[in-house]
Design goal:
Two copies of one chain form a homodimer. Chain A is of the alpha/beta class. Chain A has one domain: Trimethylamine methyltransferase-like (TIM Barrel, Alpha-Beta Barrel), CATH 3.20.20.480. The first copy, chain A, is built from 18 helices and 20 strands. In chain A, strand 17, helix 11 and strand 18 form a beta-alpha-beta unit. In chain A, helix 6 packs parallel to helix 8 and helix 6 runs antiparallel to helix 18. The longest helix of chain A has 22 residues. The N terminus of chain A is likely disordered.
């Protein structure tokens, strides 16, 4: 499988022989025996951090209501959406929709607080909401980079590689969506190859196409081949990521795709996209309020299309250097907004997709990249967000998916999932017997208690440790990114696809081939 | 000043002309005018994170009581300490001291919950406890490194350089202690040169010598030359860092130095040093409990020597790779202990020195270094710790102070201090006028609201931003550590010492010369 070359469906070499889904995970952590797969935690056991007091949260919610009542949101070119809002009591003037205070929030109330996102392999099904946590790779990069080949436009092969890598890691719960843009495939056909890859090279949950209503429909039709239309009527098996065109606009492509997902009762993730100072005011309070306003309106539309449709309250926001105009990520202001939005989402009673993740503006997988990414990830995960876009691979403000940073980020995903488990204090963890066995000044390494715990005590990252200085110099002083390089290559070599029913595979391939041949290539 | 070469007092070229203490800070942040010094926040305005519920904290406290009642702590070679504990009701058998449950905690009760640590420049005086936060550089490294000269034993010149750098940065509130070991100075005379550097090259709070009672006394005597013995009777102007010899031992050098600081009513920071599995059991709950037990005993001794003596409940703890024995830093287990200890310290009612900071086992200032450091810093600062050792420069498990990492860490100190300010929501920050001025789909950059806020809206790191990819490549693709290199050199070039009374300077120099000539060099 690692010898895949060139773009497109015809290069897919899907193995159909049954094999353990855990095979690719074997031997990942040194402490694991080869027969024990690493299973990542899927929920948090530590409290969500409450950054803001209730009165500040209420003031932000009041501001969101003011925006929706006074300014409103435009739905451009989508009469169906306008009609739905008008029927629900909103004030529609032209394409502008205004909401009396409280109305948008009330329209969101039919969305479930918690729901399952079913995976092709039921063992990979996740829950969104509650104390659950779902990590997924980066989204939307037109470039990829690795240390050997450098920075370049991403191709379908890169896309497939990242799907394989995400599938092979226990620390990502989700295959992602447009992990990177397969720029060698016509724009109007990319979604077919991407969904095919998610559905065949992985068995984790995934996101479908959203760049037009018809591409959203293709994605859903392909999922129906795998999951069955009947099952999907009442169960979410995929997500669509709907970005508002901030400030305060939904264009027809986005609201149209939103309606397609909602009509199919599939999960709609609504993510306003606000860079403070450009698509909204500068202060964090304003960014949070506008995100809430835009998010509630998108979620309300999903509920008007199909009450009870599963949704995620998402966000994508960051800051800029106001001298240079450069986008910045992992800034303290952005991290504060991330934390506030998780609180606002909890008050809305909905699963939250964080605007954080392991994000950075850095051009290299260097100290800046990990300083930005690690801080953003802490703000994301401590805040109680449920789903994390961009948990691995993201570089250069999202322009690049980096193979090495993907691996570096995975190590930290595992660390953070471990941290989210917290710890308790009981007779076994307090270890009184160890003190009775040793005493002041003595070493605990050989106590029965330590021997009983050492195999499972600590999270073991794969590439974090460099060894003693002298050994490290003998090896050529490899930095973390350099140590990551052999790991992703090794993971691709070891990758084996999850089993799939040959008839389903053939049907998917037929669908893609038919859709591709039904339309001319479009490159814009 | 930047041309200082060679070790020792005789090379100090202290400028005595008056100048603004802010001069060296000018122009540090791009948004600041040359006349506006950057003033770092000194307190948190966001809540401390509560990791553990009360019942788990109570179980850990109960375990600490059990350790002190059943196992006890040894004070080796310090009959004075043993007599003080016996008189206070502890059970002393030989050098072992056991405490009835609750006794150690009661003995800590005379320590102040909050106190000032006075600086030579009153503007740099800090408060320990409450909502205050004090960041200081790394401590104790025998090596330094920089990209030009590589890794090498540190010298007094390096020590002086780091004192200058800490003084020159607004993001460190404190000059530190043994920032790096001046290995070119005899062991028994290093404390004299270090304290002289802190007292003359900086005007921020500092830590004195602790490696023997007489060195502690020298440090206090030097401080008295600057602050006056009368002032120091009732005011803390320095700290001594007292490490327990974990597990459960205080040796005479440490408890003796502790008693010297306490007798002088100067701040005693008690820091047990526990690597889980070696100096204590593996589980986080056990490490937290043992740290609490050892810490309370040291604090109790300080209170017995001088009730009301200011103290800090410190810790130094981390994890190991249990296969290789390598120490690890920034691990999830260690970060959890860091967060728990801040809670335990709050319940003890004392200022907390965190075992975190920007710490890492990495051999280079690379992605690992910042992944480890950033995570450890988040756990430290979110948890509500009051004083942070190792906030800048630490590499390789503390073996190395890195000039470049120092700069990289400073940027993140500023980011985290900004984050700790949180944000509010009021008419100005919500910016309704900006929405009325623009509308859906319009850019906020030119609104009056943005123009009013853009100069102060966002934290501006010094070296974090690399610029667009193409520009960055033209510059040679410098990674964050490479961008840090010119910055520390520039800071040393721009450094100007704070003014000092020539008579005080002469008295300090005389003291150091007299003490140095009073004893032969010792190199062990």
């Amino acid at each position: 499988m690692h010898s895949l070359r060139g773009p497109g469906l015809e290069n897919l070499d899907i193995s159909v022989q049954p094999r353990s889904r855990c095979a690719s995970r074997r031997g990942r952590a040194a402490r694991q025996s080869v027969d024990t797969p690493v299973i990542a935690p899927r929920s948090r056991k530590i409290p969500a951090y409450a950054l803001l007091p209730d009165d500040v949260l209420a003031a932000i919610e009041d501001q969101a209501d003011w925006i929706l009542a006074t300014i409103g949101v435009e739905f451009r070119g989508d009469q169906t959406a306008l009609d739905l809002f008008a029927a629900a009591g909103a004030v529609v003037e032209g394409e502008r929709v205004r909401f009396a205070p409280g109305l948008a929030r009330r329209l969101c109330a039919t969305a479930p607080a918690e729901f399952k996102l079913h995976a092709r392999d039921p063992a990979n099904t996740v829950t969104l909401g509650g104390d659950n946590i779902v990590l997924m790779p980066g989204y939307g990069s037109p470039f990829v980079s690795d240390l050997e080949r450098g920075r370049r436009y991403s191709t379908l092969e890169d896309f497939q590689n990242f799907v394989k890598l995400a599938y092979s890691s226990p620390w990502l719960h989700h295959s992602g969506g447009t992990v990177c843009e397969p720029t060698d495939i016509p724009v109007n056909k990319r979604h077919l190859d991407m969904v095919l890859a998610h559905l065949t090279l992985s068995s984790k949950p995934f996101m479908g196409g959203v760049t037009s209503p018809s591409r959203a429909q293709d994605s859903i039709d392909m999922a129906r081949i795998v999951f069955g239309a009947a099952f999907m009527k009442n169960n979410a098996v995929m997500q669509g990521n709907i970005n508002a065109n901030s400030p305060l606009i939904y264009d027809e492509a986005m609201s149209g795709a939103l309606r397609v997902y909602a009509a199919a009762n599939q999960c709609v993730c609504v993510s306003p996209a606000i860079f403070a100072g450009a698509m909204g005011p500068l202060p964090p309070a304003a960014v949070a309020a506008q995100t809430l306003a835009e998010g509630m309106v998108g979620i309300a539309l999903a509920q008007l299309v199909r009450p009870g449709c599963p949704v995620v309250f998402g966000s994508f926001h960051s800051t800029m250097n106001l001298k240079s105009g450069a986008l910045t990520f992992g800034s303290p202001e952005a991290n504060l907004v991330t934390m506030a939005l998780s609180q606002l989402g909890r008050r809305l009673g909905l699963p939250v997709r964080s605007g954080g993740g392991q994000i950075t503006a850095s051009n290299a997988a260097d100290g800046q990249a990990m300083q930005d990414s690690t801080g953003a990830m802490w703000s994301t995960l401590l805040s109680g967000a449920h789903q994390v876009w961009h948990a691995a691979g993201w570089l250069e403000g999202g322009l690049v998916m980096s193979y090495e940073k993907f691996i570096m980020d995975l190590d930290h995903c595992g660390a953070m999932l471990t941290l989210l488990q917290g710890f308790g204090a009981d007779a076994e963890t307090l270890g009184r017997e160890a003190y009775l066995e040793t005493g002041p000044g003595q070493n605990f390494l050989s106590t029965q208690h330590t021997l009983r715990h050492y195999a499972t005590a600590n999270y073991q990252p794969e590439i974090r440790e460099a060894g003693p200085y002298e050994t490290w110099v003998e090896k050529g002083s490899p930095t973390l990114d350099q140590r990551a390089e052999p790991r992703w290559k090794q993971m691709l070599t070891a990758y084996r696809p999850p089993p799939i029913d040959p008839a389903i595979l053939a049907a998917l391939q037929d669908f893609v081939a038919a859709r591709k041949s039904s339309m001319p290539d479009e490159w814009y």
